[in-house]
């Protein structure tokens, strides 16, 4: 059994405290339990891209030993 996994989600929202709401396209479930790290370059770029509002954003969440964080994102059509 692997201790590392990754999953893609659609970004729905980022709240004022930095928690992201993500949509699982396979199950249509949402989750809001991942917080952006404020000193992270990817977090700042994701926040800026989200604020621009120019389309949907797909994020990749990496889970290692039970800890999850957003590792990448991309704009989608």
TrEMBL record:
Mind telling me what this protein is named? Answer: Translation initiation factor 5A C-terminal domain-containing protein
Report which superkingdom the organism of origin falls in. Eukaryota
Entry's Gene Ontology BP terms:
positive regulation of translational elongation; positive regulation of translational termination
What Pfam families does the entry give? Answer: eIF-5a
Q: Which GO terms describe its molecular function?
A: ribosome binding; RNA binding; translation elongation factor activity
What SMART domains does UniProt report for this protein, alphabetically? eIF-5a (SM01376)
Translation initiation factor 5A C-terminal domain mapped to chain residues: 3-74
Q: Which InterPro entries match?
A: IF5A-like (IPR001884), IF5A_C (IPR020189), NA-bd_OB-fold (IPR012340)
């Amino acid at each position: 059994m692997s201790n590392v996994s990754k999953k893609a989600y659609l970004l729905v929202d980022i709240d004022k405290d930095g928690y992201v709401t993500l949509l699982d396209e396979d199950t249509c479930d949402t989750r809001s339990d991942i917080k952006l790290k404020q000193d992270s370059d990817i977090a700042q770029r994701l926040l800026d891209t989200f604020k621009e509002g120019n389309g949907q954003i797909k994020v990749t969440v990496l889970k290692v030993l039970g800890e999850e964080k957003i590792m990448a994102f991309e704009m989608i059509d």
